[in-house]
Every structure is written in C-alpha cells, then in structure tokens.
Design brief:
There is one protein chain. Residues about 1-25, about 140-150, about 425-430 and about 455-533 have low confidence and may be disordered. This protein has 5 domains: about 25-140, Immunoglobulins (Immunoglobulin-like); about 145-245, Immunoglobulin-like (Sandwich); about 250-330, Sandwich (Immunoglobulin-like), CATH 2.60.40; about 335-415, Immunoglobulins (Immunoglobulin-like, Sandwich); about 425-530, no CATH class. About 15% of the residues lie in helices and about 40% in strands. The N and C termini lie far apart (about 190 Å). It is rod-shaped and about 170 Å long. Strand 35 (about 400-405) and strand 36 form a beta hairpin. It has about 525 residues and is an alpha+beta fold. Strands 21, 28, 29, 30, 33 and 34 form a 6-stranded mixed beta sheet that branches.
C-alpha cells in the first residue's frame, strides 16, 4: 500500500516537473490589457516574452509590434511601418533578456489597438503572440468644465493625503501622488504652499508608474481653513488638481471683552468674552489685574458700576491651551467734581488759584469774579482730571468762582482770595531802622566828646544846661519831688525852655561859638539834629 502511494507521488511530481519545463520552453508573452494612457502623452506597454531555447543560441533576434494581420506599427526597418506610426514607436525593451516593451509617443486618439508582439530569431523560429494582445484606454482632457463633463475621460486626479490633526507649530507631512503611463516624462506635481517638496517615483503593475511628492512644513494660524492643493501637470499642458482644507488646531487667540462703550454711574452691565481658537473655547474665566478669580463663564454681570470699578480681563480655554485678553477698564461717565487741594494763595504781588476737577468726559473749566468771567491762564489734563490755574492781580475782590461742566452735569465752588501780604513792608522798615539808629547814636556821642574836650571852661554854662535838660527830660510828670530837686540845681531857680541847636558832628579843627554852634561843621547824613528842651 505504501509503495503504491509512493508511485503516485512520483508520477504526480514527474508530471508537475514536465509541465514546468514545457511552460519554460513554450512560446509565451505577458502584457497588461488594457493600458491606461493620456492623449498627447506617451505610453510604455510593458512586455516580456519567452520561447523554447534553441540548441544553438542565436545572436540575432528581431522584435516587431503589429496590429490586425501583421500591419506593423514598429519594425527596425522603418520603411515597413504604417505611415501613421512612423517616428512614434520605439522598442525600449532589451530582447536579449526577453523584454519586448514598446513606447508610443505621442499618443493619438486612434492608438487604441489591439496590438501584439512578434519575434523572429535568425536560423531558428518566428512567432507572433496573437493570443497576448494589448489595448490602450486613452483618456482625454478639456479645459472647459462643461465639455469635460461629457468627455470620454480625464487625467487621473492626484491622490492627496493630509493628516486629520494638524497643530500650529508642529511639523507634518502631506503627500500627493498620481499614476501615469510615461516613465520617461512623468507629470510634474506642484503645491499651493511655498514649502519645498521631495519627489520619488516607482513602477506599478499593468503598465503604470506612480510619482509622489511629499511636503513637510509647520503650519501657522493663517493655514487654518485654507485649501492645500496639489496639481499634476502633464505634457501638453493638461492638468488635474486635488485639494483639501486644512484643519489646524491652536490655542485661543484674539481673546477680547465685548461690552457697551459708555456707562453711567449706577448702571449695570453684562460683559462677554470671545476668542478665536480651534477647537472653540470650552470654558472662560474672569480675573482682576492681580490674577484673582472673579467669575466663570463666557458672560460676567456687574451691578451698579462706578468710576471706581476696577479693571479686569478674561481667559479663554480649549484643548490646545488658553489665551487671555488685555486688561479692560470700563468707561464710566460722571459729572464734574472739584477735588480737595483746590485753593487760592498769594505771594508778594500775585494771586494764584488752582481748580482741580475730575470728570468723564473732561469738563470745561472757567474762573469768574463778581464783576465778570475770567479765562483760566493754564489748563493741564491727566486722564480724567483737569487742573485749571488762574494767576495774576485780581484787584480788590474778596472771592473768585471756579465753574466746571460736562455732558453729565456742572458744579461751582467759591474760593476766598487772600489779602495782600504787608509783612514784607514791616520787615524792610525794621531792617533800615536797625541800621540807621546805631549809626546816628554813635556819631552824636563821638562829636559831643570832641566838643567837650576843646571848650570845657568856655561853655560850662551850655554844658550845664544840657545836663539839666537831659536830667529833666528823664523825670516823670507824676514825680513832683524829683522835679523840685532838679529845679533847685538851676542857677537863679529859673527853668530853661526853648529850642537849642547843638552841633553834634564838629571836626577836630572846628571852633565852638558862644551860642553852641561850630564855626564850621558837617551834618550827620547831611542833616542837622534838633532837640526840644
């Protein structure tokens, strides 16, 4: 039983080996059918053939392509080729390695086939592979969209491959590929993006090749929702294009607070936070300038706003990150208010008044006196504050008025004007007196001594009278006893009354007369000194 089984195995193996040998030595050819090609481009028909090997290998093998009954479309002898195919066909395969590939360039509308290959081996055999025919599927292209709808065919659209998730700043690669039938002149692939692509080509089956262009770049926000296109340009100007819209993911941008432009004190307001992000923000937060969390949600309501309502900002958050708005200060309008620090003051000759007014919008500020309106001489502005300065001589008015008004209201405040400061006059008088009195006293004392030394005997009476007068001048009117004692010292119990002119600045060379005058004298400060006695 086992021997019988072994015999069957041997017979089966022998039959398989004989079949392989027969196949290897038979007249066979392999061609694709049909072959797709573009009108006006070229087509290369892949072809391989086989034949039983002769005992003596021939060095001369001729390849021929024909259609119908040996109507040659290719032959080494061009004179035997059909007129329509002359100079358009070329055997690109190497017959020595049994490659019979044919190139037709350019492709005409009538080049549909079918075609077959024939081999002629010198001193051996000739064989036509009519059972292995190939047809060509010719595609056409029209620029007009209307006519292309009815056209027999179009160039193959490029296959565009883009990743579904593309993020800002992260490198990604898009690829574009297209199959074609002309390896010696493949389509040129171009991109709508400016990045530099890389290109590679490979052979497919059934007489097709594929060219692939790869584009690598880091997208920006500007690339979001932008069409990325790849265009295949064929010889003769024919084109086919594929495109895809980029979906670029990025964190929220352009975060802003939407609000009413102007509010009055006491109003309520609803603030709304908006942003541009992909995907859209899924949550919002509100913060004070210090970063403290005020509220959550896309809207935030403030009740009874005032000029003192602080600034704030919002934050938008999505799966890619977060973004924040700039700080926002509400524009709250209110009537003018004259602030503490407003007042009038004076110096030697000028009165200066300051009126500090806070309001939104800024106020118009004017000064007035009881008899009319004055223009402020200077106005300084700082945000919501105006400082109006009035400076000059304001006459004999007791007060001045500061008037402030804007679209929300008005206010007026009176300022008392200070009187002219006379302290400087008193100071000048004291200073002059302090200088002149000692000078006059010392001059009188020195001159008196000089006069005494020169005329002690001659003017004893005069000297005595002066002493008496001096002593008498120091007595109080209410001291009668003292008055009597002084009177007794006077010779003859007589009082001395009248005016006596005394020289108080006689020089050393002066002569004193009997009446008390110097013969020649100089007055102190150019004036005589008189004393009432």
């Amino acid at each position: 039983m086992d021997n019988h089984r072994c015999q069957w195995h041997f017979i089966a193996f022998s039959f398989f080996l004989r079949a392989v040998q027969t196949s290897a030595s038979s007249w066979t050819a392999e061609v694709p059918s049909p072959v797709s090609a573009l009108l006006g481009s070229c087509v290369v028909i892949p072809c391989s053939f086989n034949y039983p090997e002769p005992q003596k290998k021939s060095s001369e093998v001729t390849g021929i392509w024909a259609k119908e009954t040996l109507k040659k479309i290719y032959h080494p002898d061009r004179s035997s080729v059909l007129q329509d195919f002359k100079n358009r066909t070329q055997l690109v395969g190497d017959l020595q390695v049994k490659n019979c590939s044919l190139r037709i360039d350019p492709l005409h509308q009538s080049d549909t086939g079918p075609f077959y290959f024939r081999v002629e081996i010198k001193d051996y055999e000739k064989y036509s592979y009519v059972d292995n025919r190939v047809s060509i599927d010719i595609k056409d292209n029209y620029d007009c969209a209307y006519t292309s709808f009815f056209s027999k065919g179009l160039p193959e659209l490029p296959t565009l491959s883009v990743s579904e998730e593309v993020r800002v700043g992260e490198l990604f690669t898009a690829s574009c590929s297209v199959s074609h039938s002309c390896p010696t002149d493949p389509p040129v692939l171009t991109w709508s993006h400016s990045a530099t692509p890389t290109v590679q080509s490979q052979q497919l089956s059934k007489g097709q090749w594929e060219v692939t262009s790869s584009l690598t770049f880091a997208p920006t926000v500007a690339d979001h929702n932008k069409s990325l296109s790849c265009t295949a340009a064929y010889r003769g100007g024919k084109k086919a294009e594929s495109s895809q819209t980029l979906n670029v993911k990025y964190a929220p941008l352009d975060v802003r607070v939407e609000r009413e432009s102007t509010l009055q004190e006491g109003d309520s307001v609803e603030l709304r936070c908006s942003s541009d992000g992909n995907p859209a923000a899924h949550s919002y937060q509100w913060h004070s300038p210090s970063g403290a969390l005020l509220s959550r949600g896309q809207t935030y309501r403030l009740e009874r706003v005032s000029r003192h309502t602080g600034a704030l900002y919002c934050t938008a958050i999505n799966t890619e990150g977060q973004g924040r708005s700039s700080q926002v200060k509400l524009n709250v309008i209110y009537p003018p208010e004259i602030k503490v620090g407003s007042a009038c003051f004076s110096n030697i000759s000028t009165v200066t008044c300051l009126c500090i007014v806070e309001s939104v919008p800024l106020s118009d500020v004017q000064w007035s006196l009881p008899d009319g309106v004055l223009s402020s001489t200077k106005v300084d502005r700082h945000r919501s504050v105006i400082i109006a300065t009035l400076q000059g001589s304001l006459g004999f008015a007791d007060y001045t008025l500061c008037h402030a008004n804007n679209s929300e209201g008005n206010t007026t405040q009176a300022f008392k004007l200070p009187k002219k400061d006379m302290t400087w006059t008193v100071h000048v008088f004291i200073a002059v007196s302090a200088f002149l009195v000692p000078v006059l006293f010392m001059s009188a004392w020195r001159l008196t001594r000089k006069c005494r030394k020169s005329h002690d005997g001659q003017h004893a009476t005069t000297t005595q009278n002066i002493a008496i007068v001096t002593a008498k001048a120091t007595v109080s009117d209410n001291s009668a006893a003292t008055q009597e004692n002084i009177n007794n010292e006077v010779s003859g119990n007589q009082y001395v009354y009248g005016n006596m002119e005394v020289c108080t600045n006689c020089s050393l060379r002066s002569e004193v007369k009997a009446d008390g005058r110097c013969d020649s004298y100089e007055s102190v400060m150019g004036e005589d000194i008189y004393a009432n006695v």
